[in-house]
Amino acid sequence: MFICDECGSSLSLQQDLERHKQTKHSGQKFKCDQCNFETNRRDSLGRHLRSKHRKPLDTNESGPSKSTVTENNIKFTCPQCPKTIPRKNSLKRQITSTHNREINFTCGKCGSGFARLDKFKDHQATHMRKRKAQDDRKRKAQDDIATKLEGW
C-alpha cells in the first residue's frame, strides 16, 4: 500500500499515488480555450476537446519521442508508425507490444504470446467463452436426447 502524505489516502500502486498527488494536491489546472471547462487532469482536457469541440490533434511524423503540442494537449508520435499517443508511457507500451513483439505472457492452451497482461487476459477469456459454448451445445444435445427418450 502507498499512503498519500498529504491526505492519508491509501492506494495500491505507486503510479496511482503519483497520479493522486498530481490531480488532488498539485493545484495545476488545465483550461479549455473554447469554453469554461476546467480540470486538474491533462487527459481529461484532451477527451473534452475531442468530444465537445471535435478539435483535431496535430501529428508529428519525425523522430523518436517527439511530441506535438496543441492547446494544452500533448501527443507523442511513434517513431515506427504514424500513430500518435497521449502519454509517454503509453508510447513505450505501443513500441514494445506492437513493434518489438516482446512476449511476456504465453497461453498454455494454444501457445499464443502477448506483451501485455490485459491482452493476455482478453485472450484467455476467448478460450473460456469457447469452452462455455461447447458445454452449452453438449448440454442441449443431452437434453434433446433425453426428451426423445421420454417420448418412447
Description:
The chain is an alpha+beta fold. Helix content is 45%, strand content 15%. A three-stranded antiparallel sheet has the order 5-6-7. A two-stranded antiparallel ribbon has the order 1-2. A two-stranded antiparallel ribbon has the order 3-4. Strand 3 and strand 4 form a beta hairpin. The longest helix is centred in the last third of the chain and has 34 residues, at 117-150. The radius of gyration is 24 Å and the shape is elongated. Residues 56-72 have low confidence and may be disordered.
Give a quick precis of the structure.
The protein has 152 residues and is an alpha+beta fold. Helices cover 45% and strands 15% of the residues.
Essential attributes:
4 helices; single chain; alpha+beta; 152 residues; 45% helix
Write the layout of secondary structure elements.
Elements: E1 2-3, E2 10-11, H1 14-24, E3 30-31, E4 38-39, H2 42-52, E5 67-70, E6 73-77, E7 84-85, H3 88-99, E8 105-106, E9 113-114, H4 117-150
Antiparallel strand pairs: 1-2, 3-4, 5-6, 6-7, 8-9
* Average of the residue pLDDT scores: 76
* Overall strand count: 9
**Uncertain ranges:** 56-72
- Radius of gyration over all CA atoms, rounded: 24 Å
Quaternary structure of the protein: single chain
Element pattern in H and E = EEHEEHEEEHEEH
Secondary structure: helix percent: 40-55%
Helical stretch count? 4
Query: Which of globular, elongated, flat, extended, rod-shaped describes the shape?
Result: elongated
How much strand? 15-25%
